[in-house]
């Protein structure tokens, strides 16, 4: 829809003898957003039952949920669990600002970019990485596959790397540590004041 709109605006401008190059749009293909703001004061605050792997693991870690249900261990991956491309939310956020800069400076029209790391991790990789951040093993149980899930969704971020000069830089370990800091320190999510020392640290860093 946005593609049609931009192309129509460009075509109209051309008819009117103008370049139309001010009409641009970025189609940003998110892979699996992970982590929280490293300050520990901003993060995902799911209402009701979360759908995604990391928020569910976080609820297991704080005892809101007894265990994680692993949806299938019979995929053709190294450990049988499905593969996704988990990207730290700060890398994802920076992907937006560099894409906007690109639209402003290069006027590409409509252009799509994959915002992923290019590295796939299995469900077990994620359980292990998040357990390491928490400091203890998190309970899980293997159940059947979830309808609609596929084996592997890993990005090819080459175009974004080349054209936007953008690359995901933060590791899975950082994403897990950041998510855990947010979860552990804000058990009521946004329905509580964030820890004062985190806010002070963030404000100091801004000066
Ligand atoms: O309780 C859970 C939740 C997830 N998973 C697995 O963990 C992986 C990641 O799952 P999830 O966090 O739900 O991400 P995706 O399955 O990649 O789903 C994302 O990508 C889909 C399309 O690609 C979108 O439809 C969804 O909204 C979006 O969350 C998948 O292999 C799931 O089977 C589990 O084993 N147990």
UniProtKB/TrEMBL annotation:
A single cellular component GO annotation: cytosol
Keyword NAD tagged: yes
Catalytic reaction list: UDP-alpha-D-glucose = UDP-alpha-D-galactose
Gene Ontology MF, one: UDP-glucose 4-epimerase activity
SUPFAM superfamilies xref list: NAD(P)-binding Rossmann-fold domains (SSF51735)
Protein name in UniProt: UDP-glucose 4-epimerase uge1
Annotated metabolic or biological route of this protein: Carbohydrate metabolism; hexose metabolism; Carbohydrate metabolism; galactose metabolism
Lineage start: Eukaryota, Fungi, Dikarya, Ascomycota, Pezizomycotina
Signal peptide stretch: none
Gene3D superfamilies xrefs: NAD(P)-binding Rossmann-like Domain (3.40.50.720), UDP-galactose 4-epimerase, domain 1 (3.90.25.10)
Named cofactor requirement(s): NAD(+)
Keywords: Isomerase, NAD
Record domain NAD(P)-binding: where: 25-178
Similarity-based family: In the C-terminal section; belongs to the aldose epimerase family.
One GO BP: monosaccharide metabolic process
Organism: Friedmanniomyces simplex
KW Isomerase (keyword) present: yes
Role: Mutarotase converts alpha-aldose to the beta-anomer. It is active on D-glucose, L-arabinose, D-xylose, D-galactose, maltose and lactose.
Region annotation (Disordered) ranges: 1-20
């Amino acid at each position: 829809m946005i593609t049609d709109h931009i192309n129509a605006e460009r075509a109209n401008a051309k008819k009117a003898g103008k370049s139309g190059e001010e009409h641009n749009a970025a189609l940003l293909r998110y892979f699996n957003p992970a982590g929280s703001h490293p300050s520990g004061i901003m993060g995902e605050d799911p209402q009701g039952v979360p759908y995604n792997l990391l928020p569910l693991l976080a609820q297991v870690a704080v005892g809101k949920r007894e265990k994680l249900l692993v949806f299938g261990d019979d995929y053709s991956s190294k450990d049988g669990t499905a593969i996704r491309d988990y990207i730290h939310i700060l890398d994802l956020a920076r992907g937006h600002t560099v894409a906007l800069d690109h639209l402003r400076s290069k006027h590409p029209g409509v252009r799509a970019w994959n915002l992923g790391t290019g590295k796939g991790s299995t469900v077990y990789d994620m359980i292990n990485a998040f357990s390491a951040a928490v400091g203890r093993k998190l309970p899980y149980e293997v159940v059947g596959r979830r309808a609609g899930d596929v084996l592997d969704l890993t990005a090819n971020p080459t175009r974004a790397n080349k054209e936007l000069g953008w690359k995901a830089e933060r590791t899975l370990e950082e994403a897990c540590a950041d998510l855990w800091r947010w979860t552990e320190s804000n058990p009521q999510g946004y329905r509580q004041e964030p820890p004062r020392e985190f806010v002070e640290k963030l404000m100091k860093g801004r000066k």
